[in-house]
């Protein structure tokens, strides 16, 4: 059995997130009442709690706080009511704005535990996600959390041009792209870790005016 999700949401079928979880074959339990959700958590071990406050009839912030006060270490994804600005929450992650299927499922995937020792491979390049170690042609480098996350996003999208806005949102969880120097510095560090010649990269390519593209060199792809 895979990870188990507790989905706490209102009874508005038009807003229900159940179909999205079902389509991705996630194991989940849907509960609409605060008391029932707390009782369920006392009897079951969940890997993630999704609290969709858009149609709930109880205070979602207090519910998240209750879970924290009870010493519950389960990650919590909170979706605040539409129009709520800068929600203060004890949730692990808050999904504000439009709750599109892609945005929601991306957050779920990021909060669920990854299998121990999960590796991403691209030719001679190997990323150990859990330990944040990248190996290339016999050389190993330990990465910071943001470096590892950036490299993971790039390696999961080989050949695609990933815009700076996309990468800022995926790695730093921000829509602000007025200053992307942080991204550029992290790309510089990654190139020093994985490229034979960082000034002439073969893996992590710059796409002028757009962003970056991860490419597996032909010699590695054989």
In words, what does this structure look like?
With 222 residues, the protein is of the alpha/beta class. It folds into 2 domains: 4-111, Response regulator (Rossmann fold, 3-Layer(aba) Sandwich); 145-221, Winged helix-like DNA-binding domain superfamily/Winged helix DNA-binding domain (Arc Repressor Mutant, subunit A). 34% of the residues lie in helices and 22% in strands. The chain has helices spanning 18-23, 34-43, 60-69, 101-111, 145-155, 164-172, 181-194, 218-221; strands at residues 4-8, 27-31, 48-52, 76-79, 93-94, 119-122, 125-128, 133-136, 139-142, 161-163, 204-207, 211-214.
Based on the model shown, name its key terms.
8 helices, Arc Repressor Mutant, subunit A, 222 residues, 2 domains, 34% helix, 5-stranded parallel β-sheet, Rossmann fold
Helices and strands, with pairings:
Elements: E1 4-8, H1 18-23, E2 27-31, H2 34-43, E3 48-52, H3 60-69, E4 76-79, E5 93-94, H4 101-111, E6 119-122, E7 125-128, E8 133-136, E9 139-142, H5 145-155, E10 161-163, H6 164-172, H7 181-194, E11 204-207, E12 211-214, H8 218-221
Parallel strand pairs: 1-2, 1-3, 3-4, 4-5
Antiparallel strand pairs: 6-7, 7-8, 8-9, 10-12, 11-12
């Amino acid at each position: 059995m895979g990870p188990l999700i507790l989905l706490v949401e209102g009874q508005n079928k038009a807003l229900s997130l159940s179909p999205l979880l079902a389509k991705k074959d996630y194991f989940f339990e849907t509960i609409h009442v605060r008391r029932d959700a707390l009782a369920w958590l006392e009897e079951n071990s969940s890997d993630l709690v999704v609290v969709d406050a858009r149609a709930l009839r109880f205070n979602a912030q207090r519910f998240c706080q209750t879970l924290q006060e009870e010493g519950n270490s389960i990650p919590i994804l909170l979706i605040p009511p539409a129009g709520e600005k800068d929600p203060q929450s004890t949730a692990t992650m808050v999904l504000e704005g439009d709750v599109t299927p892609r945005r929601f499922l991306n957050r779920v995937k990021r909060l669920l535990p990854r299998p121990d020792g999960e590796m991403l491979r691209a030719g001679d390049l190997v990323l150990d996600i859990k330990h944040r170690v990248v190996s290339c042609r016999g050389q190993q480098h330990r990465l910071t959390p943001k470096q590892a996350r950036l490299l993971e996003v790039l390696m999961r999208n080989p050949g695609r041009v990933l815009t700076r806005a996309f990468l800022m949102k995926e790695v730093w969880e921000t829509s602000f792209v007025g200053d992307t120097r942080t991204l550029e510095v992290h790309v510089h560090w990654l190139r020093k870790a994985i490229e034979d010649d960082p000034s002439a990269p073969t893996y992590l390519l710059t796409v002028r005016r757009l962003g970056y593209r991860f490419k597996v060199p032909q010699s590695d792809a054989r």
